[in-house]
Each structure stands twice: as C-alpha cells, then as structure tokens.
Specification:
The protein is of the alpha+beta class. It has one domain (10-144). Helix content is 30%, strand content 18%. The chain is built from 5 helices and 6 strands. It has helices spanning 35-40, 53-60, 102-107, 111-123, 135-144; strands at 10-15, 18-23, 29-31, 75-78, 86-89, 96-98. Strands 1-2-3-6-5-4 form a 6-stranded antiparallel beta sheet. The termini are far apart.
C-alpha cells in the first residue's frame, strides 16, 4: 500500500493490538474503518504518531487525494471537537488518513487546542459580528429595563 499524500510505501505498525499503516516518508497514518475510533480512546496510542507535526502541516495542504485501499476520492473532514484538525476519509471503504502530528493532537485537548480552534473559526469566517454601542445607547438600553 502507498501513502495517499506522498505516494511512498506504508509500513504496518501494531499498537494496542490494532494494526495500522504508517508512511515511511511523511509519517502520515492510515486507519482502516473503526480503527481510529478504537485507538483514540486507548491511553498511550499517540506514540504511533512519530512524525514531524510541522511536516504534517505541509502535507495537510494536499487535499485532493485518492484512497490507498480502493482508489475512491477521499473527502476532507473537520473534527467536531477540534476544528483545527482536518483529515481525509473514504466513503467507500471507511478508511481514514491523518497527517503526521494530527493523531497526537486529536488525542489531547488542552489550552493550545482551544486557541487553535478559535483561530480556525476566525479563518473560516464563522466569527460573529460585534457592534460597538455609544455610551448614550447603553444608557437608553438600561433605562428600558
């Protein structure tokens, strides 16, 4: 099997009794159907994500890829809990590809992730518009109460 991003060969890696595929070059991770969900909740499995997260960010820009298993076009997804994490899934076979650093990031949700999520929302144009009120307007609103 070859990496859907850089086309290098993938190696089988066993972690917590589950075999996944890791790219020998870019270190991206391939999960067959249900493997990501299974490993996401097991403590210590983030160790399998041994690649450079900065290199992973570069490969994350490559978004038009085909599934390594069935050659179907993969769909870019955004993690609901951490919208700064984008990964690719296959609707046909259920496989999933995460760039180097994304699985490790997916497993932890800390203050930096909250900041990254805020920035991702701002870049996505989902920021709410704020209106500045004059002092007189605020006083008038308070009089209504």
């Amino acid at each position: 099997m070859n990496c859907p991003k850089c086309k290098s060969s993938m190696e089988r890696v066993k972690i917590a009794g589950v075999e996944i595929d890791r790219c020998t070059a870019c270190k991206g991770l391939w999960f067959d159907e249900f493997e990501l969900e299974a490993l996401k909740v097991v403590k210590g499995t983030e160790a399998v994500d041994s690649g450079d997260a900065e290199a992973g960010k570069t490969f994350n820009k490559v978004d038009r890829i085909s599934c390594s298993k069935c050659n179907a076009p993969m769909i870019r997804m955004v993690d609901n809990e951490q919208p700064h994490i984008w990964y690719e899934t296959c609707d046909v076979c259920g496989g999933c590809f995460l760039d180097a650093g994304e699985f490790k990031d997916l497993k932890q949700n800390d203050l930096m992730d909250i900041i990254k999520d805020y920035q991702a929302k701002r870049k996505g144009g989902r920021r709410t518009k704020t209106t500045r009120l004059s002092g007189e307007a605020v006083r008038n609103i308070l009089k209504l109460k």
